[in-house]
Amino acid sequence: MKNLRKPFPVLQQYVYLNTAASGLLSEKVFDFRQEHDLDFLVSASILKEKQGKLLAGVRETVGNFFNCAANRVALVPNFSYGFNTLLEGIEKGKKVLLLDEDYPSINWAVTSRDFEVNYAVIDENLEEHIETAFKANTPDVFAFSLVQYISGIKLPISFLSKLKQLYPETLFVADGTQFCGTEIFDFDASGLDVVITSTYKWLNAGYGNAFILFSESAPNKIAPKTSGFNSLQGKYKAQEGNFLGKFEPGHQDTLNYGSLKVALQLLKDVGMKVVEERVKNLAGEAKEEFTKMNLLEDRVVKRKIHSSIFNLQGDDKLFNQLRSNDIICSQRGEGIRVSFHYFNTEEELEELLRVLKGSV
């Protein structure tokens, strides 16, 4: 097997279990960023003349990676910008279903607008709660995270696909920030209408870049009001009208979007089958051990499907003890969040368990 850790120098210093907070910068992305800014330093506007071609290449790379036509891929600076732009394109008074305690960038953005909002509870019976909410008051929009940022609870794509078949008129809008990059994801086959993803976590693409994937029918339900210079320019925007342009007003950052292209190429080189298998195996081993130690919430223990994000029972003392042992994690909610990516190892899990057991 390839040395999956070599592209990430920080792994030589730490047991890095914090991808759910911030992904790593790879040497390949770093090299691209240096070369890009060197080109800008010596060529200025000549580099910007190539912007259209570069951004078209990023769009095509994203589309190929997630199986979404390039003319349905928007490039945005982060999830919040893309999601708020989308919400501005939805009529006031629409019924929106959210998940209680979901990521604030979703729930706050919706509740700050004039929508009729309902919630489904996040617990071991999450799917049943969602189905009940749909039957009781079918939403116009269902907005949710594919993976919960605190607990790591994960909604299976298979469940969402079946639900969409039952409620084809509901607009399914998913936050893929804690999901994309952890397993193979076929957007067109998923049945989802919109997936918005910040890429600084599991895709390891750095900050300042995100993308939106749209189904063919999604533009029929969204009418964004945003506009600006460049909204109607570019290979795909010019050919397909200005829907994508509504999400991309103004000048785009070729440094950050170019970083996304390089990061996706690295994942492609590793192979998403390898990534998915390693993440799944590490998550399974971790959940088994954490369950034995009574470190997980009951709602997580009782679910069959889970992500590689775990919130462990622990206080400031334990968190500081982990950091003093060079184990990088985060305090989230009422516990300590750890997360495992494909470059993590079984030995790192053992090191984590050693410190945890020593603290009991």
TrEMBL record:
The record, for InterPro entries, names: Aminotrans_V_dom, PyrdxlP-dep_Trfase, PyrdxlP-dep_Trfase_major, PyrdxlP-dep_Trfase_small
Instruction: Name the chain's protein.
Output: Aminotransferase class V-fold PLP-dependent enzyme
Coiled-coil region(s)? none
Residue stretches making up the Aminotransferase class V domain: 15-352
- Record carries keyword Transferase: yes
Which Pfam family is an annotated match for this chain, by its short name?
Aminotran_5
Question: Which keywords does the record carry?
Answer: Aminotransferase, Pyridoxal phosphate, Transferase
Q: Does the keyword Protease apply?
A: no
PANTHER family noted in UniProt:
BLR3095 PROTEIN, CYSTEINE DESULFURASE
Under Gene Ontology molecular function, one entry of this record is: transaminase activity
